[in-house]
Write a structure and sequence with these properties.
Length: about 220
């Protein structure tokens, strides 16, 4: 009987913890989007979530920790779903554009919050950077797998490291994302068009090398 009561008490505490966490995340999302990162205080977040500031610090020692979790919870399922939905016979260019377009669509949902994410997460300290880098590496490996498939089809030269190629592809995507979210491009469609042209140039070089290698054999 005592064990059952203890289990019930633990279950109630966990539900309470999850409820508070959900309210903190919702409050952070709303306030970061509306007021920006610097203007949003921990007191604002706690008040909006209906908790004390001390309770907030138990969950997130700094508001940047909250922002990082919001970003990871948002973006991880987006890129995983985008990669999982790819047809195996797509060209490398088409596969990349489908993945990157899904990411553009995510950022377009709330451009104000996207600007906060991109500005603030670029300034993470080394300890927090480790967490973000682990996520980024997962995405790079997914891109590297796409490059490996292209190599196996003769679409790209085989002597280029797939992870190195993935870094180059990601750099083009990220630069275009910054151009768009930062206002230098007018829309996601314009960003996609610019990215398509940039990727095509990079991939053409890889494809030309692969063709020359095939002609020489």
């Amino acid at each position: 009987m005592l064990s059952s009561e203890r289990a019930q008490s633990v279950g109630l505490r966990e539900r309470s913890r999850q409820d508070k966490l959900a309210r903190i995340l919702a409050a952070g999302r709303e306030l970061f989007s509306r007021d920006g990162f610097d203007a949003t205080t921990t007191r604002d977040i706690a008040r909006r979530a209906g908790i004390g500031t001390g309770t907030l610090f138990l969950y997130f020692p700094e508001k940047r920790d909250l922002l990082l979790l919001l970003f990871k919870q948002d973006i991880e399922p987006v890129h995983r779903a985008a990669v999982a939905a790819l047809e195996p016979d797509l060209s490398l260019l088409d596969a990349l554009l489908r993945v990157f377009r899904r990411l553009f669509d995510y950022y377009a949902r709330d451009l104000r919050l996207s600007r906060v994410f991109l500005a603030e997460l670029a300034l993470l300290d080394p300890a927090r950077r480790v967490d973000l880098d682990a996520f980024t590496l997962e995405f790079l490996r997914a891109l590297a797998d796409l490059v490996a498939r292209a190599q196996s089809r003769g679409e790209a030269r085989r002597d280029v490291g797939t992870l190195r190629a993935a870094h180059a592809l990601f750099s083009l995507y990220y630069a275009t994302l910054l151009d768009w979210v930062g206002g230098r491009l007018p829309s996601a469609d314009a960003a996609e068009a610019q990215l398509r042209a940039s990727l095509a140039l990079l991939l053409r070089g890889l494809a030309d090398e692969a063709k020359h290698e095939g002609d020489a054999t």
